[in-house]
Amino acid sequence: MIHIKGIRKARGSDLRAIIEIDALISGVRKPAHWKEALRKYGGRSRQRFFLVAATQDGVRAYIIGEVRDWEFGSPSSGWVIDLAVHPRARLSGLATRLMDDLCRRLREAGVDKVRTLLARDNALVLAFFRSQGMMAAPLITLEKELG
Predict the structure, then answer these.
(1) DSSP code per residue over 48-79
(2) Once rounded to an integer, what is the mean pLDDT over residues 112-125?
(3) Is 138 part of a structural domain of the chain?
(4) Residue 28 lies in a domain
């Protein structure tokens, strides 16, 4: 049983745990990426958020979100940029608690919609976001190889 101490803003001392969670999931260690993410999203901005779920075992999950204004012609909306839970802490409610807290902050920032992007074949993440009431948006992603 995981005891959640609380949801709070990420800080420098959390980077080791964040890097470890990401590496367990992605298979790649990216310390420079996470240092930059903390710099970009971890400040006092009322439109950018980097939150962690603290437990008795330390940080076991994180979420990054922001308000994007008029991107692709859409009114201001919230975006989930990244969300991850330590594999041994899954199904503990951490992701839901983080998502709820982020959505509260986004509403306080003045938006009434939240969006995200994910890989089509990532059934685990898709199932989570659907369980949170998210569904297909009116936007589609297009890409082109630049090689």
Answers:
(1) EEEEEEEETTEEEEEEEEEEE-SGGGPPSEEE
(2) 90
(3) no
(4) yes
